[in-house]
Amino acid sequence: MVIGVPKEIKNNENRVALTPAGVTELRKYGHAVYIQATAGVGSGFEDEEYAAAGATILSTIEEVYAIADMIVKVKEPIAQEYKLIKENQLLFTYFHFASSEELTHAMIQQKAVCLAYETVEKTDRSLPLLIPMSEVAGRMAVQEGAKYLEKPLKGRGILLGGVPGVKPARVLVLGGGIVGTQAAKMAAGLGAHVTIMDVNLTRLRYLSDIMPENVDTMMSNEYNIRAEIKQSDLIIGAVLIPGAKAPHLITRDMLKLMRSGTVLVDVAVDQGGCIETCTPTTHENPTFIIDGVVHYCVANMPGAVPYTSTVALTNATLPYVLQLANKGWQQACRDNEELLKGLNVVNGKVVYNGVAEAWELPLTPVSDVLRKVIAV
């Protein structure tokens, strides 16, 4: 198979979808790999390293899309890439369709095969290609939140961990999954007083057992959220519903309950956000203020630490890339239920329920699409 890796062109996105080590593995199986020039530089990988591993370096993004059977990326295609995508071309990347109607319709129109990292799902319902970036984003949420609590950045002017004689900051984490767990660990490690909320009592019992003494668990509901936000300095939104929009746990009217300089970090913003007033921002302009509350809503947070993020992500994606390349996407999805669940849009048809519901589009059963494609 011919595999193409374009350079990411989303604002301040420095990750790359394949490392030189990944190229080496693909070349072992006889696959051709084409990398756009300087695609890996932001993550610390030079063109020479890719060439030494057996990749061919192409000058432009147009060349990469034109030659490849499968495009492997990190972030969803943006508008200037839409027309480069060919009918039946396989795209393997983060899509988050439920947060972008424009992207959804563009991929339908291009009749691409869109296999989304974020909906590849194991039998235990874990999301193996979302976990690495969730771990990074959860830890970064606290790092960024602590920074924006500083007064010059319009925060409350409070040190997350406090000092002897001064109470630490209070951190509220909404969601006890991978992001929330990592955020709570980081905040607790810095000495903050942390409350983590979730709707799953079994998960809360687990978190209560593993978390340090300065972390409390609490059932997530509107009453408890309204009570906690009044005294919280940093609030981290860490809610995920795979492939669907995140629910708004903090609504516009709740901002009035918060103290001026409170910081909100919505890690779920790439799935629509769990804070109503959050809209996607960039690393270049990461924050905005509403009612005195600082909103940090960068949709590609791990892009700020590209070396760590790239290696962590490719550790998880490469086995799936190899399956897709070795077998072709149809056979790979028939053989592996995890990959099958990653299919979102196939040849102009929406095959993932969360995407169909988000934009009120007709849903085609993925098994039907697979049968039709294989029969052609």
UniProtKB/TrEMBL annotation:
GO terms for molecular function: alanine dehydrogenase activity; nucleotide binding. Substrate binds at residues 15, 75. The active site is at residues 96, 270. It holds the Pfam family AlaDh_PNT_C. One of its GO terms (cellular component) is plasma membrane. Keywords: NAD, Nucleotide-binding, Oxidoreductase. Residues 4-137 form the Alanine dehydrogenase/pyridine nucleotide transhydrogenase N-terminal domain. It catalyses: L-alanine + NAD(+) + H2O = pyruvate + NH4(+) + NADH + H(+). InterPro entries: Ala_DH (IPR008141), Ala_DH/PNT_CS2 (IPR008143), AlaDH/PNT_CS1 (IPR008142), AlaDH/PNT_N (IPR007886), AlaDH/PNT_NAD(H)-bd (IPR007698), NAD(P)-bd_dom_sf (IPR036291). It is an enzyme of class 1 (oxidoreductase). Residues 149-297 form the Alanine dehydrogenase/pyridine nucleotide transhydrogenase NAD(H)-binding domain. NAD(+) binds at residues 134, 198, 203, 220, 239-240, 267-270, 298-301. Its EC number is 1.4.1.1. One of its GO terms (biological process) is L-alanine catabolic process. Belongs to the AlaDH/PNT family. This is Alanine dehydrogenase.
